[in-house]
Amino acid sequence: MKWITREYPKIDRIATPWLIKRFVDVDAEFIYVPAREVKQKAVELDATPFDVPDVELSHHNDLCTFDAVIQKYNLKDEALRIMAAIIRGADTDAHHLAPQAAGLWAISAGLAYNIKNDHGLLTQGMIIYDALYSWAKHLQGVRHTNNPIDQLLLNVYNNYLKEQKAAKVPGWVTEIKDFIQDQLDINLTLSLSDVSNQLNVHPAYLSREFSKYFDNQTFGDYVRKMRIEKAISFLQSTSYSLSEIAYLTGFSDQSHFTRIFKKYTGQSPSIYRKMLKKSKTDTKG
User: Fold this and answer.
1) Is residue 225 situated within a structural domain?
2) Which residues contact 18 (CB under 8 A, 6 or more apart)?
3) Which is deepest, 3, 96, 124, 242, by most CB within 10 Å?
4) Domain count, the chain
5) Neighbour-count burial of 76, counting CB atoms closer than 10 A to its CB (0-12 exposed, 13-18 middle, 19+ buried)
């Protein structure tokens, strides 16, 4: 069979041909063409298109084309499932999905940098994915460092690195706290791009690194938490209606405000306010 996809492959368009060749179609022929030509050429050449929009074998939701092939052809090999998480993480920059994902991305990017011919790149990539499959199938429990003394020194060194890394907090962390606090009163539609522009930090990097320094919260969660804290201060010190507080803290309406407030505090704002009044009454009594 003929299979066709976009030119200039790096990860999914190398990993997927490997998967097809090794587990689906041993005689598969792969064709790389400019992205705009894939569907037209697929019809002309009677080839199966993959890794392009609006075709069966492509990215769907959080899954990539490698996943789609596994699902379509009902491939049950556990090693492929392990590989899929690594490939998905490398292909979508979701390196948290597997510890090997960042390494696969680095190798794939370097390989594509060195080899400009798509089929030459595929030939070398097949060797990489053969090796990754062998590791996933047979070698996951094998460590490179087996000497107990070497392993002990390695553990000490890694712990030292973690301590050093924990001690170095990027300058933007302090800046972003101050900026969000300053902007919350005047900019109720504060977004990640607003902050990245202000601090001159790339939004993709900021989104990926944000949770490390803000108690595992995303940017959106952190801003919502700040808005809830602001709402609590209004409930404690003003007689504003709940609709007014919702508006002043940047929520779309009172219903939205109530839902988020309850998620963070376990109580609706109306009950929270009643408990505050009761507490003050009991204190006076």
Assistant:
1) yes
2) 125, 126, 129, 130
3) 3
4) 2
5) exposed
